[in-house]
């Protein structure tokens, strides 16, 4: 079964308007939530077991509970900077059902005690930001946003903030700096945003899909929601399937659905006569899996156990007609471009990796370069303020580990093309400088 | 492979230019010296009022100035700096960080061709070449290879003045450019907003009736 909660009515004409959304039961969850106490709403979120849908997969209820109590200014920020290559689920949600997101934001802000909220949407999503602005105006008019919402005493302001094109602003602390009007450089953690986030105040940051799931959880009850999915990955997930598949698109699946069923069943698999060579299970930052992993259930833990991650739920399929070097080079160049430059391992490591891959491509590399490249990846992981560097190092490292033969063949072939001698082990330096005389 | 070098063998432009110690650092421009169009001032002030800290409006303000001036020119930066009471250097630093803010003069029509992984697997490289060749040296166009634009379901795609179109083939390029030149909606039949999905069979929202391929397990 697919399209269970978030995508249930997604193709309903006019769902983006308050009228149609309300007809479909919209804002009923908000009414229900406002009749409960914030603690009861939080308990529902915690019992649902909902894990963040943006990439890290952190339990949402726990994140809300980390915010300090008391009457200080608290903020809620919705991360709509969907920039992970291959991900386009939030775009469809915001474009077709913006009120679902707004309703989720109001409920989450009630549970967290936040009085100001922001949607940080990437600048490229011009139409989606316009739709959100229109929906926000409708919701404000109807009294779902503003002072004393539905006479509950809870007040919330909401601003749709447009970014200007930077992948790093999808990283939560980079996003906060960008929202404060600075360059989007990630911050040192701790302190975590729950304690010191936006304007140094306690801040709850969640992905669009996570917040859009909240109304469904309130409507059906956290425990009911937790019955969907697997033990540790509860609920449904929007997956964006792209690349070499016949029907690319967004699909809502129950977590734990076999990967093969998503790639072949829903998305139609690779074109006729081609086979899956490798696939990214969670955006281009996730280590690649191969055709042998297609029978794994698609959930957080199975992906982690296989050495990869569920990430943002973006499955990118690469078929056997594509050289792995092209994929690696494309991925590495992206992260080189998007590295903010704050931490050296990421800034230099992404650059070195691109240069080494280019050497493999143009035939000036030796097999030793593969070793060096693999070690560069190891030295990036865990050594930076944020995970952008890791996001390159993990997939590149996995490609080197799983397709080493192909890299080696490519080096030989490119050297042969260049009329260079076949690669030989580097001559020992013992001969000293005089050898060149 | 040669690295692009600037003056004095530097890899970074402007690095070699000596600092003039006699020159004062640029301060917040005074309203007497900088004329700001009333409409732009109004828009920036509207944004500033939305946030607890008005500095948060830097991105929307720079975007608004760019719409007026065509790019984040020194004049545009000065105007934003004047209204927001920030130094031009601060805003310059912000503007150079973001891909969508142009710190050099560019064509009026932005054509961002997504060349990231999902689009590349479906021929974005050829599309980008065709787009560059098609636009040639027409100063009206700003054709750029862009990172993932979040529309891999219509890959390969492009964002033309903020409108998403796809899937595109190199053959679509002349018509696309002609639409932009004539001021028409660009490739109306290929706009993301006019259709539910790229391919009518895609995203059918249900499992297909045929058996799952490759399900030998």
Topology:
The complex is a heterodimer of chains A (437) and B (217).
Chain A: H1 18-23, H2 28-35, H3 38-48, H4 60-65, E1 75-80, H5 89-96, H6 98-112, E2 116-121, H7 126-141, E3 157-162, H8 172-179, E4 203-207, H9 208-220, H10 222-225, E5 236-243, E6 249-254, E7 257-258, H11 259-266, E8 276-280, E9 289-290, E10 297-298, H12 300-305, E11 314-319, H13 324-338, H14 344-362, H15 367-380, H16 388-402, H17 404-417
Helix pairs in contact in A: 2-6, 2-9, 3-6, 5-6, 6-9, 13-14, 13-16, 14-15, 14-16, 15-16
Chain B: H1 38-48, H2 58-69, H3 74-84, H4 88-97, E1 109-114, H5 117-120, H6 124-135, E2 141-146, E3 158-160, E4 163-165, H7 173-182
Parallel strand pairs in B: 1-2
Antiparallel strand pairs in B: 1-3, 3-4
Helix pairs in contact in B: 1-2, 1-3, 2-3
What descriptive keywords fit this protein?
heterodimer, A: 437 residues, alpha/beta, 5-stranded mixed beta sheet, 4-stranded parallel beta sheet, 17 helices, 11 strands, 43% helix, globular, B: 217 residues, alpha+beta, 4-stranded mixed beta sheet, 7 helices, 4 strands, 32% helix, disordered C terminus
Quick overview of this protein structure:
Chain A is α/β, with parallel strands linked by helices and 437 residues long. Chain A is built from 17 helices and eleven strands. In chain A, β2 (116-121), α7 (126-141) and β3 form a beta-alpha-beta unit.
């Amino acid at each position: 079964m697919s399209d269970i909660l978030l995508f249930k009515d997604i193709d309903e004409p006019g769902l983006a308007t308050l009228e149609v959304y309300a007809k479909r039961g919209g804002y009923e969850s908000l009414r229900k939530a406002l009749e409960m106490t914030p603690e009861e709403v939080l308990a529902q979120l915690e019992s649902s077991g909902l894990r963040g849908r943006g990439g890290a997969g952190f339990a949402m209820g726990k994140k809300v509970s980390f915010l300090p109590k008391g009457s200080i200014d608290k903020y809620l920020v919705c991360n709509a900077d969907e920039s992970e290559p291959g991900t386009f689920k939030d775009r469809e949600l915001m474009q077709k059902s913006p009120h679902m997101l707004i309703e989720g934001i109001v409920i989450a802000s009630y549970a967290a005690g936040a009085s100001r909220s922001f949607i940080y949407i990437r600048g490229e999503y011009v139409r989606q930001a316009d739709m959100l602005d229109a929906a926000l105006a409708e919701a404000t008019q109807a009294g779902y946003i503003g002072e004393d919402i539905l006479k509950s005493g809870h007040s919330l302001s909401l601003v749709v903030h447009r970014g200007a094109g930077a992948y790093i602003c999808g990283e939560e602390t980079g996003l906060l700096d960008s929202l404060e009007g600075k360059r989007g450089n990630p911050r040192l953690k701790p302190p975590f945003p729950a304690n010191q986030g936006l304007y140094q105040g306690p801040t709850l940051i969640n992905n669009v899909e996570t917040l859009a799931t909240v109304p469904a959880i309130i409507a059906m009850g956290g425990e009911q929601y937790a019955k969907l999915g697997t033990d540790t990955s509860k609920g449904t997930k929007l997956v964006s399937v792209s690349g070499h598949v016949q029907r690319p698109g967004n699909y809502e699946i129950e977590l734990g659905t076999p990967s093969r069923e998503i790639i072949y069943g829903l998305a139609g698999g690779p074109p006729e006569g081609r086979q899956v060579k490798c696939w990214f299970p969670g955006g281009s930052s996730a280590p690649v899996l191969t055709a042998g992993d297609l029978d794994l259930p698609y959930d957080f833990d199975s992906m982690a156990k296989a050495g990869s991650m569920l990430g943002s739920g973006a499955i990118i399929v690469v078929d056997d007609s594509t050289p792995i070097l092209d994929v690696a080079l494309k991925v590495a160049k992206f992260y080189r471009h998007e590295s903010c430059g704050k931490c050296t391992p990421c800034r230099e490591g992404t650059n070195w990796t691109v240069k080494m891959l280019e050497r493999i491509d143009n035939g000036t590399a030796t097999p030793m370069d593969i070793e060096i490249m693999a070690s560069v990846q190891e030295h990036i992981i865990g050594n930076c303020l944020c995970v952008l560097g890791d996001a390159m190092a993990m997939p590149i490292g996995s490609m080197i580990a799983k397709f080493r033969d192909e890299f080696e063949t490519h080096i030989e072939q490119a050297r042969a093309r260049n009329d260079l001698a076949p690669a030989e082990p580097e001559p020992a330096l013992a001969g000293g400088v005089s050898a060149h005389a | 492979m040669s690295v692009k070098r600037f003056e004095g063998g530097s890899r970074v432009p402007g690095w070699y230019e000596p600092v003039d110690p006699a020159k004062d650092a640029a301060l917040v421009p005074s309203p007497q010296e900088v004329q700001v169009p009333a409409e732009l001032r109004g828009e920036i002030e509207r944004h500033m009022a939305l946030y607890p800290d008005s500095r948060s409006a830097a991105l929307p303000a720079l975007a608004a100035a760019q719409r007026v001036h065509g790019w984040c020119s020194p004049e545009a930066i000065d105007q934003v700096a004047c209204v927001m009471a920030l130094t031009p250097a601060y805003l310059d630093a912000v503007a150079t960080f973001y891909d969508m803010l142009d710190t050099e003069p560019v064509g009026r029509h932005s054509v961002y061709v997504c060349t990231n992984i999902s689009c590349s697997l479906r021929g974005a490289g050829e599309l980008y070449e065709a787009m560059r060749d098609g636009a040639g040296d027409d100063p009206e166009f700003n054709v750029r290879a862009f990172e993932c634009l979040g529309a891999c379901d219509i890959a390969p795609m492009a964002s033309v003045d903020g409108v998403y179109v796809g899937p595109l083939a190199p053959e679509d390029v002349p018509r696309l450019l002609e639409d932009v030149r004539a001021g028409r909606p660009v490739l109306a039949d290929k706009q993301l907003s006019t259709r539910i999905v790229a391919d009518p069979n895609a995203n059918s929202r249900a499992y297909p009736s045929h058996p799952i391929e490759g399900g030998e397990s």
